[in-house]
Every structure is written in C-alpha cells, then in structure tokens.
Amino acid sequence: MDVLRRRYLLSLLIRKEVQIRYRGSILGWLWSYVKPAAQFLVFFLALGVFLQLNGSIENYPIYLFSGLIVINLFNEAFGNSTRSLVDNGALIKKIYLPRELFPVSSTIVALVNFLPQLVILIVVCLVIGWDPTIPQLGGTLLGIAIITTLAIGLGMLFGAANVSFRDSQNFVDLIIMVATWASPVLYQWTQVAKIVPDWVFFIYQVNPLTAAVNLLHAGFWYPTTEGRGLLAPNLWLFGLLGLAISLAVLTIGQLVFRRLEGRFAQDL
C-alpha cells in the first residue's frame, strides 16, 4: 500500500487534521470529553433510568460507555474518511499524492480522539475493581482492530463514490444512525436472541460491529461484574470472523478506490 511508503506525508495530514479540528474553539480538546459525556448521560437517563436497564444489567454505566466509545470510533472514522476526499479537494487538484492517505489519516485522527475516552473508561473500571485477564485485554485490541479496519474499508469505498455522487454521504449518515442500534451497545445480546430466529441471530453475531462491541464488553464490563455478567457465545470465533469480514471490506474498498481515483481531480 502506498500509504506505508508515504508515512511522512501521512503524519503531516494527521497533524493538520488534529490541529484544525478545534481551531477557534473555546473548549478545544475538551470537546473530546464533552460530546461523549453528553451522549452517555442522554442514553443512561433514557435507557438506564427510565427503561430501568440500570437495574437489570449489572454495572450498566460501564456496559453502556464501553459500547458507546467503540461505536463512536466507528462512526467518526467512517464519516470523516468518507468526507476526506471532498474536504481535501483543493489539495488533490493541485498536487499528486496517494489518495488513500486521506481516509487513512481521518481514521487515525478518530483513533486519537478515541484515546481520551478510553483512558476515562480504564480509570473508572480500575476504581471499581477491574481485573481483566490477558485474553480479555487481547479481545479489546481485536475489537478496536475490527473497527478501524472496517472504517477504513468503508471509508475508501464510500469516499470514492462520494466524489462523483455526493448523495453517497446520505447513505453513510443512514449507516451511522443504524450502527448504534444494530449492535449491543445500549442493550444486551440476550434480548435479541430471545426474539429473532437462530439464523437471524447468527447474522447479527457475524456483524463486525456486534463482534467488536461484545469484545469491548468482555474486556471492560465483564471483569467488573465478578463473573456474573452474560458474555456473548463464541466471542473469539465471531471476533475473528468479524476481522476477516473487515479485511474483505478493506480489500473491496481499496479495489474500488483504485478504480475510481483517476477521476477524482476531474470530478472535484
């Protein structure tokens, strides 16, 4: 991949995006904490308090936040990488550089914004007695790898299409809207298993987002329940399937990207 050979250019793009993200903002980097905190409070009040999930799911705040931060990582990485080519249209028309740098750098910036939220989660988990095993920690890394790989692949696919067909962004917005509810971020997987047929539940588990969220729950939430929480079945199996699907999406996204990139400068 050209991105690996142009690491210096990639670092410049990442630095540029990080620096201009909150330029002119009073709170600046504090928004990396304010936005997820506000989202967490809204969902916790609506689901945890009003729908009483806080009573039925042990340590529901940890369960909720560990799922939210990883799905937010996907939403931000996917959304930003899809827009990255159009947003950098002036640069693409002036000079040549590997176009893949733009969606990849947007995904890495999303990872940078994800880190403060991850730190908060780790600190809170440690306070309430978090004691994960090595496989559980490995599962969290696998979950993050699934999310970033899938986001880059989809970002390349829809980003390339978005250059010529700007309504592609509307499809991305729909996917992002559905993503939070199509994986067990706000509810437990058992609620899905009770209602849908087995074959639908299998498709639900194969979804890379579901696998990633379940792995994050297993790494952060489950150790705080002292083994009383309910883990999704075959976590590692579906995690590896999710990674395989994400790699397939990345391959398809790169092929489409290469096919369409010759028209980027013209269409922009």
Automatic annotation (TrEMBL):
Transmembrane segments: 26-50, 101-130, 136-159, 171-189, 201-223, 235-257
Residues annotated as domain ABC transmembrane type-2: 27-260
One of the GO biological process terms: lipopolysaccharide transport
Keywords: Cell inner membrane, Cell membrane, Membrane, Transmembrane, Transmembrane helix, Transport
A GO MF label: ABC-type transporter activity
Keyword Transport appears in the UniProt entry: yes
Top-level lineage group: Bacteria
Keyword flag Cell membrane: yes
Subcellular location as annotated: Cell inner membrane; Cell membrane
Membrane topology: Multi-pass membrane protein
Gene Ontology CC annotations of this record: plasma membrane
Main location: membrane
Entries under PANTHER family matching the protein: INNER MEMBRANE TRANSPORT PERMEASE, TRANSPORT PERMEASE PROTEIN
Family: Belongs to the ABC-2 integral membrane protein family.
Protein's recorded name: Transport permease protein
Organism: Mycetocola zhadangensis
